[in-house]
Amino acid sequence: MNTAPLITIVLPVRNRAQLLPRTLRSIASQTLRPLKVIAVDNGSTDSTAEILGKWAQDVAPAGIEVTIVSEEKPGASAARNRGLAEVTTPYVMFFDSDDEMLPGHTQRLAECIAANPDAEIIGFDIAIRDDDGWTDIKSVNDSDLLRGHILHGSFSTQRFIAKTDFVRAAGGWDEELPRWNDLELGTRLLASALNPMIFHGDAGVIVHTSTDSISCSGFAKDAQILGKVLDKMESDLVSSSKEEYLVWTDARSMILAALCRREGDSESARRIETKTLKRRNGWKRRLKLRAIGAMVRLSGKGGCLLAEIFFSTKPQEQ
Hints:
Elements: E1 7-13, H1 20-28, E2 35-41, H2 48-59, E3 64-70, H3 76-86, E4 91-94, E5 100-101, H4 105-115, E6 121-124, E7 126-129, E8 135-138, H5 145-152, E9 160-163, H6 164-169, H7 181-192, E10 197-199, E11 205-208, H8 223-239, H9 246-262, H10 266-278, H11 283-299, H12 303-311
Parallel strand pairs: 1-2, 1-4, 2-3, 6-10, 7-11
Antiparallel strand pairs: 4-9, 5-11, 6-9, 7-8
């Protein structure tokens, strides 16, 4: 057993009394020891605090050190930043209070860290399970990690571990973004990382989806917020001198517009399309972006693949 913990799991929680025990059991099943957990109670009004307190006592003898803190500002990003401020280990990973880790997950991450000490951020595959019990492995096989994330969210909340100082230096989570905040953070981290990496294989995390999840609430309802996220991602790329990746945020913008249109919000769709096309020179690029939007509008999918076909060339050829 190592004497100093390597990894801290930051776990924001708000009113999860019914689902939280499953997540806590999965963390307790981890084989890596010692292990640290910082649980952030984000203003719970149910029995969440009591469940966390009892669990912390139960797992302490097994080599899991749990710190429970509170964050009254609402929102997962504020809670994650509160937890990040408490981390003392070299590496940090973020987890949601309704998902599961398989027993060998953190041990495998520790082995990957040992083999790749220069990697500031490491991504991995996950499995997504829906309400009907169907499980789908999510793996993004793109040699360009930043492009893969912009298009597919391959470094979303439960899909990466990173050096703690690296996440702090990047500014942590943007608390002004209630949705797609992990898409923005992953873009910011990858844009500044010198040695990012991803490894594939058996998924160590099961993400549970449900119809009441914020990620399943549609696009038109939050079109303005999601557009703001894409704007922030563009700013991140420009600040990191990664302007060549703006074509991928353009594609995501046109995909968002098409999804809004499919949900009946033509006004938001036109606004996003007009803004995206207006800021880009070159009729070929605009034509390709329109084609991406048309593909998604008609079929509901295929936009990312079409973007890769159109734009995986030298900028001057676009």
